Amino acid sequence: MKPVKTGAALSITVLLFYLLCTLVWISVPETFMGFMNALFHGLDFRRLETGRAFSWWDVVYPAVVFAIWLFAAGVFFAWLRNRLDNEG
To answer: Where are the domains of the chain?
Structure first.
């Protein structure tokens, strides 16, 4: 398993799903909130709504954080898997 490629694949996958999630939220916010509440066993995500105007920075900043964090997690995962595979 190649660590950099694994990290890139994980980062890109999560980033695409994050952006898709954002588009669905913008398009159908009430349906989306119902889905999120069901997905997380009834946790009420509506409490997190602030009522302030939507900003693209609110989407871009977390996307960058996700991309960096999950790239690092993917690299570490592949590195660790390779190490464990060599020991067994």
So the answer is: 3-87
